[in-house]
Structures are given as structure tokens and as C-alpha cells.
Amino acid sequence: MKLKGLSIRSRLIRLTSLASAISLLIVFTALFIYEVVSYREGTIREMNILANVLASNSTAALAFDDASVAEEIISAVKAERLITTAVLFKADGSILASFNTDTTASQVPIVIDSHGFEIRSGRVDGFVPVKMGEKQLGTLYLRRSTEDTERRLLLYAIIAGTVIIVSFLLAYLLSSRLERTISGPLIALSEISVQISEQRDYSVRATDPADGEIGQLKDAFNAMLSTIEIQNREIQKHNQHLESEIDERTRAYRREKEFAEVVVNSSLVLIAVFDVEMRLIGYNDKCEEEFGLTRQQVLGKKFNEIMPMVKGTLTYDSINRALQGEFVHKPQYRSSVTGYFYESFTRPLKNDRGEIYAALMTAHNITPFVLSTNELQKRNTDLEQFAYVASHDLQEPLRKVMLFTDRLSHELKESTEAATLYLGKIENAAQRMSNLIRDVLAYSRLSRIEESFVPTDLNDVVAQVRTDLELIILDKRAIINSDKLPVIFGNSLQLHQLFANLISNALKFSDGVPVVRLTAGVPTGEELIDAGLQPTGNFAKVQVIDNGVGFDQQYAEKIFTLFQRLHQDKKYEGTGIGLALCKKIVTNHGGSISAQSVRGTGTTFTVFLPSMPLV
Amino acid sequence: MVDDDEDDREIFLEIVSELDPSATLITAINGADGLEKLHIHAAPPHIIFLDLNMPIMSGTEFLKKIKAAENFRNIPVVILTTSNDEWVIREVEALGARDVVTKPVKFEDWRKVLRRFLLPSN
Fold it and tell me: For a tag on chain A, would you pick the N or C end, based on fewer CB atoms within 10 A?
């Protein structure tokens, strides 16, 4: 019987029915065999008894060879309906008497076959000797039909069959009823598990009442479901938390991204990002505007494919170098794409692992600045050239005026007082003009000539100035004291001019005996900031302090402008260029100059000059 | 004397003839003229007074040329200039000028300068 692929229900029913059928079959078979065996034995015994009774009754008839008596005796057995044939043989084998009612079997036997009874098909028959004492008088043959036995066995079989069928049906009905108590909960469990696996609803429970192992199974199943449900709920809760967190982060990321995009796109600076393959991966609005190409047109494409003319340019080179890790600054170049001037900064962008994944280029259009600077430089140069040439050419006729005034005054030895006075005035005016021209020339020359800057010892510079001013110093009996001065990174000629101007100023603007003091020191960061310099720079501080007439502090800045004079007094005559020149020299050196003064007490000029090369 | 300024040439001539009537003064109006006159005259001059700012050929250029020429290299050259530009002074000194003199504004000073170079024994 095939059980595989059948439901538990069918299996149980089949097993139960089969078991009961087999047991009934075995029982009935055993009973049937017993019945057959006991019937055979009983029949043979009965036949023997009957035959022996007949044989002993027949002895007299045989002994007297009386056929009629013999016939009478034998006929007596006719009463026994089942005895169909009886034959009495004489000792010589001839038949004394016989009867036969059997219609199916053969005629009465002629020959004595054997002794004892046997069951053959449809009958039991056999021979018994007829004896008187020890002497055999003849032989008796009896035959009996087995018709009754066959009927009985048939009836038996019918009953057995009926019983088996009824029992089988009963067993089937009973088992199909009983199996529900076993398979019912199992099927319910199975259906629930199917439902759960299909609907993923772990809140369902097995509810069928069951006990024993199936009850345990149900309870275990429910417990397992509870655990799954709890875990599921936790997982769901966790998932929801994660989802809301992801949502929040996504929103924050989007906000940041939008913020960054707005910032990048509102920049007036061109911002472009290139990946390692030189493909554009970032490109702001300013770039769109400047190059006339939209983001859609350029993003993801190689730079030299979008703009073939860039290959081999400074820009291209800058990006390449940035992709190698370099920070590249191009202060000024002309774009081959737009034709404008730009300043650009290109730097590598690195990921968490420190690998370069892109180059960021920021650039701004400096064309107006470059053009105006160029224009300004050209104009300045023109102006200075003009000032230089003009001053130089002005000097010549002036010298002639002075020369011939001089000659004229010699010629007019006996001239009037008035003539001498006028000549003196001409000479004086010419001299003043000459000084003016000389100073303008010096001023314009400062910008005209490219100076070499070297470490310069200020002590040497000041010593030279003292020598140059020797006559005035002696004349005024001036005292000049100087600290040990620092070595400055600068140009000695300019520095000479600076200190000559400052010291001669100190000598000039003095009523009594001029006392000039030069001090040296290191400026504090604050002082440098106040002077508009880098507080971290290496600067030396030099002060020129005098006891002269001084001026109102309100003019402290004005005095450094060109042609600015504070004194009308003839004895403090000047061109108004000296301090402007000083300021220009100090500015040329990357330093700063300022003045502090108290009218009637004196003036202090404070100079900051770079003590190391400015990088 | 090489100078484009006529007045200066006249004053120069006046003082030279006053100091040494036997002396010969050859004047040229610019560097090119100066070089030409150097080649024309058989004997080279004892001293050359040279102005710097001149048309056609400047004093600096003239100085470079004669310092490069074997025949004239040893003639002392005194620079007379209105400029007191230190860089110019340095340049001509580097080129081999004997001295640099700022053109005086007084006649007497002119005389002193010439006396210094023409009559060294005084």
C-alpha cells in the first residue's frame, strides 16, 4: 500500500482498517482450518464406528451365506441419509449384498481396495473386514457423501466474509472518527503554519483543544509563535526607528546639499570639480554664465572634449598637478576659452583614506583689474617718465638762469643796491626751484628704478649720512646719538636718502642746539598691527627723536603727503617732498613710518623696516 | 669737450683760454660728433669733458665706445652733468670715467673745476 503522498488522515484510516482486516482474516482462517481438520477426524471416526457395528451385525449372514438377511442389515443404514453406498463382500470377494443411492459417484467397487476410510473428492469411503473371532468372513464397504460438510463450510465462509466486511467497515468508521482526535490538531497546526507563512501574521494561535503529545506540540508551537511575534514586533519597532532615522538623515542631507548648492551657485567665483579622469563632476552657475555651457552639457564629460583648446594650457596643467596632490595657484593667466584674465586656485580633494578623487578649481575673472592695473601702471610709468624728463629738462634752463645771473652780478660790480637786491632774489628763486626739481626727480626716480634689496647695515648708512651732513652739524653744533642699529633687508641708496631726510629735518626744524637720538628695538605685535603690518613679520623698529620745534599731532599723517608744508617761516624752507620721499622709501621696503610730535618739545619718527627677506 | 649745450661750450672755451691760452679745445655737439672729431685729429686729446644727456649719441654711449677703442681707452674722461642721479654716476664710474662733476651754477665754480683738471700742479 502506498502511503507516501497521502494525508495524515488517510494514512491513519488506512493503517487502522488494514490492521483490523488482517487480524480478522487470520482469526477466521485459523478457525476454518480447525473446523476442517476436526470435521475430517470426526467423520472418519463415525464411519469406523458405523462400519464396525454393521460388520459385527453381518457376521451371521456371512457365516450362513444368507443374502436376504445381509440385505436387511445393510439396508438399515439407509436411515442415515448421508450413507450412499454399502457393499458386503464375501470372503472370496463376491458381493453378498449391496445398495447404492449415489448418483454422482461410480458404481459400487468390485474389488476390495484397502482397509480404513479416506476422504476423497465429495465423499468418504473405505473397507472394514468382517470377522468372527480370528477368522475373516468377508469385507464391508461404506461410502458417505460430504455434501453436508461442504454446505457447512460454505456457510462458514459466508459468515466469516460478512463478519470481516462488517468489522472492516466498523473499523474504518471508528478509525476515521478516532483519527480526528489525533490528526485534527495536527492538521489545524499545519493549516495555521501555512496561513502564517502565507500571511506573515504571527499573532495567530493554534486553538484546537488537544492533550498529550499533540497538546505539547501545540503549546510549543504557540510558544514559538509568541516568541516570533515578540521578536517581530521588536524588529518592526527597530525598523521603524531606523526608517525614521534614515528619513531624517535623508532630509538633513538634502537640506545640506541644497544649502551647499545655493552657496556654490551664488558664488561670484568660478567653481569646477574634475575627477581623476578629468571629467567634470562639479560646475557652478558662474561657470555656466562664463563659458556659456550648461551643467547638462558638461557634467560627466572630459574637459578637453568639451573645450578642446584647453589641452596643454596652464589650466589643464594646474588640474593635472592638483590630481597629483599639488596645491596650484596661478595669480594671473589668460584663458584660451574666454580670452579673459583669471586668477585660479586648484587643489586636490581627498577621501577618508587620503586618496585623491578629484581636483577642485576656483577661479575669478580679474580682467577689469588686470586692465585697470595695466592702464594704471602704464599711466604711472608715463607720469614718472614725464616727471623725470621734465625735471631734468627744467633743470637745464634754470641752471642757465642761475649761471648768467651770477655772471651778470659780476659784470655789475658797481650796480645800484636795488639791482643787487633783485639779482639776489632771482638767484634765490632759481635755487629754490632747482631744489624742488631735484626732489621731484628723486621722488619719481624711486618708482622708475628697479632696486636690488640686500641686507644693509643701518649703522653704516647713518655714518655716511653724518659725513654728508657734517657742515650743518658743525654749524648748528648738533648732537647726534645713535644706538647700535639693526641690519635691514633693503636698498642702501634709498635707506641713505631716508635717514638723510629724517636727520636733516631734525636739524632743520630746531631753534636751539639740535639733539637727535636714534634708537633701535623690536616692535610688538600690537605696534605692527597699528602700523598696518603683519604681526608675525620680522621687523626692526628704528626711531629718530629730536628736540625740535615739533608740530600739532593732528598733522602727523598730513606731513607725509607730497608738497605738504607746515611752516611759513623762511628759515624752515623746504620743498615739501622730503617726508613724502621717506614714506615712499619705507613703503618700497614693505615697512611703515609714522610721526609723533608735541609742538615746542620735539618729534619722534618711528620706522618699521623688514629685518629679514620678505618671502 | 662733448656737449650739446652751446652756452656751456662757450663758457668752457672762455675759461680754458683764460687758464691756458696755448691749450687747444676741440668741441663736439654730441657723442657721434665727438667720435668723428677724435678720428679726424691726428693727436688724441689729453682729456675729454663729456656731457651725458645729448641727442643722437649720449655721453654714456660715447664713453662705452672710446673705452672699447684701443687708441682712446687711456684718455681720461671727466663727466659733466646736470644730473645728481646716483645711479647714473655709478654707471659712468663703472664704465671708467675719471670723475663725475655736477655742472656748476656759478661762473667761479666752473673756473675751479677746470682749474682742478687742467692745472693739476696748482
Answer: C
User: Contact B5/A396, CB-based, under 8 Å?
Assistant: yes
Q: Three cell numbers at A567? A: 611752516
Which residue from B7, B84, B105 is facing A406, i.e. has the nearest CB? B105
Q: Identify the pLDDT of residue A487.
A: 87
Residue A390, Cα to own-chain centre: how many angstroms? 74
**Inter-chain Cβ pairs, chain A and chain B, closer than 8 A:** 34
Half-sphere exposure of A133 (CA within 13 A, CB side): 3
Nearest residue in chain A measured CA to CA from B4: A396
3-state SS string over A497-539? HHHHHHHHHHHHCCCCCCEEEEEEECCCHHHHHHCCCCCCCCE
Using CA atoms of B73, B78, B82, B86 in order, give the dihedral in degrees to the nearest 10: 70
Residue A167, all three cell numbers: 468489522
Taking the C-alpha atoms of residue A498 and residue A491, their distance in angstroms, rounded to an integer, is 11
Question: What interface predicted TM-score (ipTM) does this complex get?
Answer: 0.77
Q: How many CA atoms, within 13 angstroms, populate the side-chain half-sphere of residue B76?
A: 9
Q: For residues A336 and A313, is the Cβ–Cβ distance under 8 A? A: yes
Specify the DSSP element, H or E, that contains A135: strand A135-145
Are A449 and B108 in contact (CB < 8 Å)? no
CB A70 within 8 A of CB A90: no
A327-373 pLDDT tens trace: 999 888 888 888 889 999 999 999 999 999 999 999 998 888 888 88
Entry pTM? 0.42
Touching check for A434 and chain B: CB below 8 Å?
A: yes
The helix (H) or strand (E) run that includes residue A64 is none
Neighbours of B105 (CB within 10 A): 21
| Partner B contacted by A392 (CB < 8 A) | yes
- Closest approach of chain A CAs to the CA of B76, in angstroms? 25
**Three-state DSSP class for A90?**
strand
Using a CB-CB cut-off of 8 Å, the residues of chain B touching A441 are: 85
Is A413 within 8 Å of chain B by CB?
no
d(CA A513, CA A547): 9
Task: Find which of A389, A393, A396, A402 to mutate to test the B interface (most B CBs within 10 Å of its CB).
Answer: A396
The 8-class DSSP code of residue A109 comes to P
Query: Which residues 6+ apart lie within 8 Å of A57 measured at CB?
Result: A73, A76
* Inter-chain touch B105–A402, beta carbons under 8 Å: yes
Q: Which of A524, A447, A516, A445 is nearest to A478 (CA)?
A: A516
| Residue from A602, A575, A442 nearest A510 by CA | A602
Report CB contact under 8 Å: A403, B53.
no
Task: Report CB contact under 8 Å: A399, B87.
Answer: no
Phi, psi of A207 (to 5 degrees): -115, -15
For A249-266, how does the pLDDT look when each residue is reduced to its tens digit (9 = 90+)? 999 999 999 998 899 999
The mean pLDDT of B45-56, rounded to a whole number, is 89
How many other CB atoms sit within 10 Å of the CB of residue B16?
A: 17
Return phi, psi of residue B30, to 5°: -165, 180
- In contact, A136 and A91? CB cutoff 8 Å: yes
Calculate the dihedral angle through the C-alpha atoms of B89, B92, B95, B99, rounding to the nearest 10 degrees: -80
Q: Decide if A602 contacts A610 (C-beta within 8 A).
A: no
The residue written with cell numbers 629724517 in the block is A502
* Spans in chain A with pLDDT lower than 70: 1-5, 103-111, 113-114, 208-210, 415, 447-451, 562, 564-573, 575, 612-615
- Residue A428, strand partner residues: none
Phi, psi of A203 (to 5 degrees): -85, -10
Instruction: Quickly list H helices, A124-267.
Output: 147-199, 212-265
